[in-house]
Amino acid sequence: MRLESTLTGATHPAPEPRTPTPRPGGRSTRVRAEVVAATLAEVAEKGYDGLTVEAVAARSGVHKATLYRRWGGVDGLVADALTASADQPWPLPDTGDLRQDLRRITQEVFSVFTDPELGPTPTALISAAQRSDTGAAALRAFFAARHRQAAEVAERAVARGELPAGTDGTEVVRAATAPLYYRLFVSGEPLDARTAERAADAAALAARAGLFTPTTTTPEQN
Amino acid sequence: MRLESTLTGATHPAPEPRTPTPRPGGRSTRVRAEVVAATLAEVAEKGYDGLTVEAVAARSGVHKATLYRRWGGVDGLVADALTASADQPWPLPDTGDLRQDLRRITQEVFSVFTDPELGPTPTALISAAQRSDTGAAALRAFFAARHRQAAEVAERAVARGELPAGTDGTEVVRAATAPLYYRLFVSGEPLDARTAERAADAAALAARAGLFTPTTTTPEQN
């Protein structure tokens, strides 16, 4: 969801995970931010098939040998661009109403993937990550982190008494966002604001009805 | 959804679309079925990156020149394997209850992608199709056809008075199946029977609440 802060030039650079003592704002952090930005620009322009360590080196001004040493290659670069996105703090909506919170979240997903300024970057990054095992692992971690973070809107709704105790918040988030990602990356259909809103409303309804509590499966009646 | 009949050896071969006067059971139909089967086997074993016209020719016993002439190349082969799947007739559930019908449909999706006999074939085919414009177009057509066909369960529910008039049946189908495809092709999470059931129940609930009717968007309240 919050891919933007990274994609548009992070204002809160994530700590460099491979440095034992990261210094925020230090050289290592700056290098990583430049490499991530260059990777995103290259992926958006040329796609995974056209992505080379050489081009990322040229665009970022970071030596090719450094890129190979710290990132391993193009798959590591793509994975780290996703990890950098997952590491970004993003403000969770807190309207006091689950449906409105979920609408804000699906509206955010809609915005990221239809923003003319970001253009093809978010879609290209996810598509590129799907192309390697390293990228796929980063993608799983990215979505797991997003589910976990966004689950807070459901947890607050449970605390308010708006949702049944035991509701699986990550499942509420998946339900709200899946119809958007389905169109973007599976059925290849256009996304619109109405879809985003409807997906949020459907997830809120299902959550309120207790569908996302870990009850025993009711046997099929037919 | 109903990828199986093709994937496991079609009992009802689809008509050959490029032959002006297709003869069901004729030579052209048999050639296509063999080529589709060989393409599926190759994609499952080697993935898109390992797919070659030569290997499909060797496996199907159809001459390479014929494959290039009729299918254009690997992307055309992948696209046609999907088209063959989309052309397959598949029995729609008709239990007299929307929720049960949707559960059958999501159970079918779950089965196709977790069936040990089919193994990686359905996933590999969709992943391969995502890799080219030709494949992506076939993928869009595949899902559009599936949405259209499966929408009948919602249309019957409207006729029974179970759903509001004007309900968009394709949207009900997307809502029911999106959480499954999201896990399979986006978040990379494992699929289980409970997810399939829950997605169907949530879609039925939202449909009954009138979320899939073309009403004017209610303005956000916050």
Helix content range of chain A: 55-70%
Quaternary organization: homodimer
Count of separate DSSP helical elements of chain A: 10
Radius of gyration of chain A: 19 Å
- Mean pLDDT of chain A comes to 88
- Structural class of the secondary structure composition of chain A? mainly alpha
Can you tell me the residue ranges of chain A where pLDDT is under 50 for at least 5 consecutive residues?
4-20
CATH topology of the largest domain in chain A: Tetracycline Repressor, domain 2
Largest interface: A-B, 44 and 44 residues
Largest sheet of chain A: none
User: What would you say the CATH architecture of the largest domain in chain A is?
Assistant: Orthogonal Bundle
- Categorize the overall geometry of chain A: elongated
- Beta-strand fraction estimate of chain A: under 5%
How are helices and strands ordered from N to C of chain A?
HHHHHHHHHH
CATH class of the largest domain in chain A: Mainly Alpha
Looking at this structure, what is the CATH superfamily of the largest domain in chain A?
Tetracycline Repressor, domain 2
User: How many β strands of chain A by DSSP?
Assistant: 0
| First and last CA, distance of chain A | 39 Å
Give the SSE map.
2 copies of one chain form a homodimer.
Chain A: H1 4-7, H2 27-46, H3 53-60, H4 64-71, H5 74-87, H6 98-114, H7 121-129, H8 133-160, H9 169-187, H10 193-208
Helix pairs in contact in A: 2-3, 2-5, 2-7, 5-7, 5-8, 6-8, 6-9, 6-10, 8-9, 9-10
